[in-house]
Amino acid sequence: MTTGVASRAPSLYVSASMSRAPILALKDVRLADGPLMLFDGVDLALEARTRACLVGRNGAGKSTLLRILAGLTDPDAGERTVTPGARIAYVPQEPDLTGATVLDHAVSGGAEPHRAEAALSDFGMDPAKSTTGLSGGERRRAALAKAFAEDPDVILLDEPTNHLDILAIETLEAEIAACRAAALIVSHDRAFLERVTQRCFWLEYRQVRRLDAGFGEFDGWVEKIEAQEAEEARRLARAIEREQHWLARGVTARRARNEGRRRRLDSMRQAKADRLKEAQGSLNMGLASSGVSGQRVVEAKGISKAFGQRTILKAFSTRILRGDRVAIVGPNGAGKTTLVKILLGELEPDAGSVKLGTNLTVNYIDQARATLAPDMTLKDVLLPEGGDHVMVRGHPKHVNAYAKDFLFKDSQLRQPVRSLSGGERNRLLLARALARPANVMVLDEPTNDLDMDTLDLLEDLLADYDGTLILVSHDRDFIDRLATSTIGLDGTGRAVETPGGWQDFLSQNPGFFGAPRVVAPAKAAAARPAPPAPKPAAAKLSYKDQRRLSELETLVSDMPGKIAALEQALADPTLYSRDAAAFDRYTRALDAARDQLAAAEEEWLDLESRREALEAGR
Predict the structure, then answer these.
(1) Judging by DSSP bridges, how do beta strands 325-329 and 440-444 pair with one another?
(2) 403-422 burial, b if ≥16 CB within 10 A, otherwise e?
(3) Residue 452 in 3-state DSSP?
(4) How many CB atoms lie within 10 A of CB 616?
């Protein structure tokens, strides 16, 4: 079903699903947004229980494609097919909640109240909580709970980790692993996608290509495709040169043949023009320090903070030196942003002291994007005092050229901020912040809504930045790649600082955030009612079936740990180059373990349904 370039990397998942009928599919879908063609012959299929991601640049049309799959947007051409009776749950990028309470919202799609309450509890939400005044993370958790409570056959998730803290993301991973629904996920969170996906769809150049492997294999696969396309472009350019030379030397007596080759040359020129037209602009971000700060940037001793009866921080001390990259992590509402403001001297602690270093120039990008007024134009944001030139790290640059560096068109400069997507707003904040030299960068949830290309470039810039970085983020991969130390807040006032990133923090502070969230794999299997069975003649399962049921329960309980261990081994990016035989062995073992778990769940469901029916008939 692959469209566009058919090439792909070797797959970890030799797809048994290729022979299964899809539960939801698109075929030859086309859609135009005004003069812009978004999709031109898109094919995409999801089989039962398939967990896939949809990857593409900002503006490629990922959210629109999810809406088409959800049946909320009609394509201009092509087919959408759904298995009769299949239930589809869709969580948009910015969910709107209905009803007075989050429970009202969770049951609004037809979920049974007890299932809705259980799902809300799983995501840490009080069912009686009002839907007004919720934070972005609370809205997201309520929307996710509603989707899982509906016991769907297909679940479509658009940037589901946005505004979720790391613990909530791990809950979401557990829910997806336990859910029997097929899933298609749009996300920029690499660690999340590596943990939950078995397949990748890549939306590029108006078409979708497919990789039957988890996201951990995506980058290598894309590099191979791009190398092939670069070689094709080189061959096309050489062919055009040859044809131009031949036609220039052709003679009148061969005019008819000349015309044929001229038509061929015109066709090749058009193909090259199409390639150039399709080529997307590349980000051209830069970052510079405003000069050397003092060696000591921040020194906090015994600081504490409370709001009323709620304690945010208890007697915490830290020292941040020039060049440090400090990540701050913890549950939503734990006080991460409050701690940042105390460290920057914007908020007084209730006790303790904070001393700031000398010659500090701070750039702060806030998670709420509160500094972007909806009615401001992009030009107003980049040039708040007027004019046509932006001072970019001490040098003037025309606003049109600078906006182009961040993939904004000239026509967009006159548009209001409210017309921008989440990713575009974040890019605009980055454009404004990175223009100003600073020796302290504070990034509060910088990864929300950004595509992976932008994230990779931002990560490279920050890695080479010679100033000091304070990072509040839920993106585990981003933290692990950048942080020299991590401060964890547990939500009760306790704060601990550990050298290294997120994984280092977890290994050195086991249990700091409480017991990890675990969802039993059999939960979703048991949740869906079994078809009615005839009244049994026996009063209970046979001894053989009882023993088998017990074995299956043990197997279903133990297999996720084995699968996680294999996935962890395969997550090592150097494994294949170090030991190809081990890579193949782990791959085969992982496929076999997943198949074994799926078969065990099916068999467990059948035996458990028979046992319940027998007991009900006593």
Answers:
(1) unpaired
(2) bebbbbeeebbeeebeebeb
(3) helix
(4) 10
The rounded distance, in Å, linking the Cα atoms of 80 and 23 is: 11
DSSP symbol at 489: E
Does the domain at 296-508 match CATH 3.90.79.10? Answer given as no
Task: Quick: pLDDT tens for 226-263.
Answer: 777 777 767 766 766 665 665 565 544 444 555 555 56
Percent of residues in the chain assigned helix, strand, coil, to nearest 5: 45, 20, 35
Band of pLDDT at residue 285, cut at 50, 70 and 90: low
The per-type count for the chain, helices as H runs and strands as E runs, is 19, 20
pLDDT over 90 (residue 488): yes
Half-sphere exposure of 334 (CA within 13 A, CB side): 25
Q: How far is it, in rounded angstroms, from Cα 50 to Cα 214?
A: 11
Task: Output phi, psi for 508, to 5 deg.
Answer: -90, -10
Q: Is the pTM value of this prediction over 0.85?
A: no
**H helix intervals, 23-124:** 62-69, 102-107, 113-122
What length is written for the chain? 618
Rounded (10°) CA dihedral 65, 159, 286, 409: 30
For residues 328 and 445, give the distance between their C-alpha atoms in angstroms, rounded to a whole number. Answer: 10
Q: Which residue from 431, 435, 432, 434 is spatially nearest to 391, judged by alpha carbons? A: 435
The contacts of residue 191 (CB under 8 Å, 6+ apart) are 475, 476, 477, 480
pLDDT digits (tens, 9 = 90+) for 335-357: 998 999 999 999 999 999 999 99
Going from N- to C-terminal start, the domains of the chain cover 16-221, 232-278, 296-508, 522-616
Return the CATH number of 16-221, one of 2.60.40.10, 3.40.50.300, 3.40.1190.20, 1.20.1290.10.
3.40.50.300
- Lookup: tokens for 122: 């799983």
CB atoms within 10 A of CB 83: 14
DSSP-derived secondary structure letter, 350: S
Per DSSP, the three-state class of 114 is helix
At residue 352, the 3 state secondary structure works out as strand
Q: What angle do CA 27, 44, 83 make, to 5 degrees?
A: 75
CATH number corresponding to 522-616: 1.10.287.380
In CATH terms, are 16-221 and 296-508 the same topology? yes
Contact 270, 446 (CB under 8 A): no
**Distance of alpha carbon 595 from alpha carbon 201, whole angstroms:** 22
Tokens representing residue 323 in the block = 């060049």
Structure tokens at 518: 């675990």
Higher pLDDT, 320 or 559: 320
The token pair at 102 is: 């989050």
**Residue 336 CB partners (closer than 8 Å, separation 6+):** 328, 329, 330, 444, 472, 489
Of 365, 11, 448, 430, give the one whose Cα is nearest residue 187: 448
Per the CB < 8 A criterion, the answer to whether 187 and 157 are in contact is: yes
Query: CA geometry: angle at 85 spanning 82 and 87, to 5°?
Result: 80
Q: How far apart are CA 159 and CA 187, in angstroms?
A: 5
Spatial contact of 486 and 505, defined as CB atoms under 8 Å apart: yes
Scan for tokens 């979703």, then name that residue. 524
State the Cα–Cα distance between residues 252 and 143, nearest whole angstrom: 72
